[in-house]
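$ ./design --mode recover --in tokens.txt
reading tokens...
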């Protein structure tokens, strides 16, 4: 089955190198999710170190393999480069509203095992420019890092574009492929719900995704600039009811935009 474009892969540069013990090999430089790239040296040396006696070389080999696996999972979330450094720790809290929403997001991460078991969703809603995408991406990153869950970030505009492209006669991806990708991960972040045209196709698409994940008991996070009552009108009462079940929570970003007045 073809894969869609939501998940990403780290860029890798290779060049021929020579190991004193094992001869020629492809030396790789792997892009890091949010930091400096790392060099993956001779694979046979890494294998021998990993399966050898306890010591610094074995610890380094195991650490590098663990980093590579986590790095790949973080790229697979599809979080764009602009948001890869977003964490709960670097979200600015200059007033009570910001502290309140940060606390709610921390609680969601801390209790994610229960949320995954119950399919408990989270809505980050309200005024634009207050860090909803930052916190949504921070949660995605945290559940992958801390809970080893699978997660995916998808902007609604990109989702709709991918689905419309799948209708073309020569499309590489079918509609079923696109829907399968967004309904499979342990956690799905749908960003900017309500920012598009509010057509019947868009409403039906979101309802379908929410309903499939509801039946699978998989949690979904939604960010939207709409207040809860307008969001319910946009996605539909039935879909909103799905999002609220089993303790689903709406967190309101109800202060003036932090970006207002910026150049």
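writing sequence...
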């Amino acid at each position: 089955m073809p894969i869609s474009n939501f998940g990403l892969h780290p860029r890798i540069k290779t060049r021929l190198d020579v190991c004193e013990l094992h001869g020629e090999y492809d030396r790789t430089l792997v892009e890091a999710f949010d930091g400096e790239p790392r060099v993956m040296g001779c694979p046979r040396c890494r294998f021998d170190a990993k399966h050898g006696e306890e010591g610094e070389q074995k610890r380094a080999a195991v650490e590098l393999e663990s980093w590579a696996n986590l790095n790949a999972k973080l790229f697979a979330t599809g979080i764009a480069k602009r948001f890869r450094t977003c964490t709960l720790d670097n979200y600015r809290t200059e007033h009570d509203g910001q502290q309140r929403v940060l606390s709610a997001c921390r609680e969601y991460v801390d209790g994610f095992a229960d949320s995954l078991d119950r399919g408990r969703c989270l809505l980050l809603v309200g005024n634009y420019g207050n860090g909803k995408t930052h916190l949504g991406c921070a949660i995605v990153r945290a559940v992958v890092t801390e809970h080893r869950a699978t997660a995916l970030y998808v902007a609604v505009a990109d989702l709709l574009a991918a689905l419309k492209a799948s209708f073309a006669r020569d499309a590489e991806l079918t509609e079923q492929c696109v829907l399968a990708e967004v309904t499979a991960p342990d956690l799905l972040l749908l960003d900017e719900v309500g920012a598009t045209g509010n057509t019947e196709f868009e409403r039906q698409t979101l309802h379908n995704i929410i309903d499939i994940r509801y039946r699978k008991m998989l949690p979904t996070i939604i960010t939207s600039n709409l207040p809860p009552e307008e969001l319910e009108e946009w996605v539909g009462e039935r879909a909103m009811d799905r999002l609220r079940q089993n303790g689903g929570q709406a967190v309101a970003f109800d202060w003036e935009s932090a970006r207002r007045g910026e150049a």
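exit 0
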